[in-house]
Amino acid sequence: MKELIDCAMRRKRSDLVIRNVRIFNVFSGEMEEGEVAIKCGTIVGIGKGYEGEEAFDGGGKVLLPGLIDSHIHVESSMLAPETWVGLCSPHGTTAIIADPHEIVNVCGVEGAEYIKEAVSRIKKDGVSPIDVLLELPSCVPATPFETSGASLDGRETERELARDLFFGLGEMMNFPAVLGAEEDVLKKIAAAQRLHKPVDGHAPGVTGDGLNAYRAAGILTDHESLTPGECREKIARGMFVQARCGSSTENLADIAKAVDGFNFRRFVLCSDDKNAKDLFTRGHIDDALCRLVKAGVPAKYAIPMATINIADCYRLQGVGAVAPGYVADMVLVDDVESFHVRATFKRGVLVAREGEALFETSRRYLPAAVVGTVKIKPVMAESFTVISHGGRMRALEILPHTLFTKETFFTPPAGRVEVKGTDLLKLAVVERHQATGNIGLGFVKGYGLRGGAIGISVAHDSHNLVVLGDDDGAMSRVVALLAKAGGGMAAVFEGGEEVFPLDIAGLMSSAPAKEVIARTSAIQERARQMGVKEGYAPFMTLAFLSLAVIPELKLTDRGLVKLATYGFVPLEEE
């Protein structure tokens, strides 16, 4: 403390002085031209004329606090954690609130330990470029309607939450169980409260008495708001609303309509799920800021949503501002319209400049717990046979550009159901954690694919194998390819087949970012050539067809689930 004070009073030289910058103040919303003095990773002064051991010329550009992602699943990038850090640090990201929900559902708590350890091994001058604050996933499995690779009940949650490894409790997706006051779910929330750790939310369309109940449980945030009115109601009930800018979904445009000069401190930015290609081409939270400003939110309201608001939401002391006494996490941008990042500082260390990470990311930490995770019983073409008894059958109709489906019906002739030449496809979810042999079967309407099958081992949230096609033999071959690769993305088409392995838990690839982007793009283009319509991400849309906490009808390895009744429904009506 004496050193910090001496540097602030100019009795001693600082470690680093960043000169010639316009400093955005998240407290006043104003710009100040000047210098920032840093000592021992802490900002000690803002003004002019500081002396330092090193100097950095900001070229008259804008200096912001380091950008924070308030809710992210790193696994959704399909990148190894080291590669993910190497992509995001040059975009100004200095901290994330990470819910390793995906990998924990596959590998248990060892999956979370893997992410933390992999990131902790990356250093620049002894400093980790991005702080990863891990939350313990609250829904493992996400619902009682599927087979997961792990299970964490209330007692186990309390034990694990007590570890320093976990910063809080991850998104409480099973909101019906919260509203129903189910004992085991309440044990998890109560454990976090006793430990004074935050609880994140997931409450699409929850308003009125349901919202009151959700808040009464102490749940802090929500990233699933659907309308400006819903945002305002959640803020009025004391929540922080997360504006999401992800690859599969984003709600920035709708949320922008709810932001005003009084409530903007209750909004925070997040990406939730963002793939490698979008991170590489569009950016991370810098992209969210740019889009938010374009949607009409003034920059002086938007910037706090990526910085100090998140620090306040999660009680992160000394984070989120360029001010004395705050950690020297900062990002230099061209302006507050494009938010094009020129440099990223972490605790006063320059960790990225002009789009390039200044640290090594090529070494891979791959413990045994996260490899070889696809375990299935043998599958044959006959495994996908569906027999009709002449009644109406349910199908999922995917709403374009969303994660939502609606329930629709068709009436096939009695006997074996064939989908070739129709607007229907056969959908299967194959259990891959315990080799139970479970296969959930259903139908999808309007997706467009023809002449084969595609499949993926990323299937929120239990990550069983999801396969879609119009040919049972092709579907069985897709499953075989995914099993052999240890998970991934696969396509079988007339005259060939293609697979891209996701060797880390069937969720992520240990390959370099450019290879991941090129190969995932190529296999997605193959699916487009097979007829997948615009409005649907060829493979990632499949990944959400088993997510039983998103309306209206979804398929798990155990059957069709309807969210409205929160239970199974038969494929064929009697």
Largest sheet: 9 strands, mixed
In CATH terms, what is the architecture of the largest domain? Alpha-Beta Barrel
Average pLDDT reading: 95
- Can you count the beta strands? 30
Indicate the structural class.
Answer: alpha/beta
| CATH homologous superfamily descriptor of the largest domain | Metal-dependent hydrolases
Rg (CA only): 24 Å
Give unreliable regions as ranges. Answer: none
CATH class of the largest domain: Alpha Beta
Query: Helix count, per DSSP?
Result: 17
Q: How far apart, in Å, are the first and last alpha carbons?
A: 75 Å
Commentary on this structure:
The protein has 574 residues and is an alpha/beta fold. The protein has 17 helices and 30 strands. Strands 1, 2, 3, 4, 5, 14, 15, 16 and 17 form a 9-stranded mixed sheet that branches. An 8-stranded mixed sheet has the order 20-19-23-22-25-24-26-27, with helices on both faces.
Q: Which descriptors apply to this entry?
A:
25% helix; 9-stranded mixed β-sheet; alpha/beta; 574 residues; TIM Barrel; 17 helices; 8-stranded mixed β-sheet; globular
